[in-house]
Amino acid sequence: MILEMKVPSPGESITEVEIAAWLVEDGDYVEKDQPIAEVDSDKATLELPAEESGIITFKAEEGDAVEVGAVVCLIDMDAKKPEGSGEKEVLTVATPKVEEKPAETKTTYASGSASPAAKKILEEKGISASEISGTGKDGRVTKNDAVKAVPSMGTPAGGSRGSEKSKLSMLRRKVAQRLVSVKNETAMLTTFNEVDMKPIFDLRKDFKEDFKAKHGVGLGFMSFFTLAVVRALKMYPDVNSMLDGDYKISHDFQDISIAVSGPKGLMVPVIRNAENLSFRGVESEVKRLAIRARDGQITVDEMTGGTFTITNGGVFGSMLSTPIINPPQSGILGMHNIVERPVAINGEVLIRPIMYVALSYDHRIIDGKESVGFLVAVKEALENPIEILMDNNPKKALEL
């Protein structure tokens, strides 16, 4: 019996996938549930397991775009598993290595010199005879060599100058389309501010060891930023809204998308109902999602439905950037690297760890007053975390 394997639907609204890689060879015997291919959708890369055991026959090649529900391979379930499959004995015969001596090039007084006719042509072209390999006797540069010589347009460094053309993955192509559409279809604007990170540094210094020992996760910056954003979104609900044609959709919950780096590029999984999470809850969820993204196990559902995004370019050393909105959301907060800078505090110049933050927002739905107020609210919470985020009780807030 021949089984037709069809492309399953990776998620709502996805109608097409791309065969990223076959994990077996055409004609191999495969076991039921064995991963046989990786398929790219416009949101994630998924493994395709064999539905039954048997001999596989491909119906699509790597790089092919196939519709959801289309047949990608056949499995002959009546075929028997070959004996000793996968164990092939290869006989190698050692062959004595024979070293070939390079041909010697005879060098004489004529090597690199030009004939009178060749010399005149080279002078007209502005080329030195020493730049040309002569084909005449004993390496002499002939008239024909001079005629064929082309003036140098630069001095190659001697390294590789190869080029390679490769097709972008479906995920990367979709990301590119979305980024361009955001720039073209939204009134995107960015506002900036700076945050004195010393209060958070002091808290982490005092409690990070106890926090990790009790909860099994580190006390990072993401929990502070996520909870500061949740508070600011409640204060400025337009930043937590999105446009749908002529309508504004407002949310009474905060699903925070976080940008993490995965093997296929940047992915944006969602922390659901972040307003209900503690510091421990946020850090645990960030760790879980980051591991799943790193291992290529993140699902489409885990990257769908966020209401606001936080991205941290600081981990790569970025000082300042203008992050691009993650549609259909209306706002995104960009974190950056932390650098010790001189700042004026109470009339004194002090050295403090400063982070620049950026809020990109859709001006069609968010006014300047709301955007600036939102970012100031985030700054206030980060610079006064004990009072604003911990209700003046750090140990209780950190569940220690």
List the keywords.
alpha+beta, four-stranded antiparallel beta sheet, 19 strands, Chloramphenicol Acetyltransferase, OB fold (Dihydrolipoamide Acetyltransferase, E2P), 9 helices, extended, seven-stranded mixed beta sheet, 400 residues
Explained architecture:
With 400 residues, the protein is an alpha+beta fold. It contains nine helices and 19 strands. Strands 9, 12, 15, 16, 17, 18 and 19 form a seven-stranded mixed beta sheet that branches. A four-stranded antiparallel beta sheet has the order 1-8-6-3, with no helix packed on it. Strand 10 and strand 11 (247-249) form a beta hairpin. The longest helix is centred in the middle third of the chain and has 18 residues, at 198-215. The two termini are 61 Å apart. Mean pLDDT is 85; it is low at 87-96.
In DSSP terms, counting alpha (H) and pi (I) runs of 4 or more, how many helices? 9
Rough shape?
extended
Number of domains: 2
Strand content: 15-25%
Q: Which whole number gives the mean pLDDT?
A: 85
What are the low-pLDDT stretches, counting only 5+ consecutive residues below 50? 87-96
Number of strands: 19
CATH topology of the largest domain: Chloramphenicol Acetyltransferase
Q: What is the alpha-carbon Rg in Å? A: 32 Å
Main sheet overview: 7 strands, mixed
Class of the largest domain in CATH?
A: Alpha Beta
**What is the distance, rounded to the nearest whole angstrom, between the alpha carbons of the first and last residues?**
61 Å
Q: How helix-rich are the residues, as a percent range?
A: 25-40%
Secondary-structure-derived class: alpha+beta
CATH architecture of the largest domain: 2-Layer Sandwich
- Order of helix and strand elements from N to C terminus: EEEEEEEEHHHEHHEEEEEEHEEEEHHH
- Name given to the CATH homologous superfamily of the largest domain: Chloramphenicol acetyltransferase-like domain
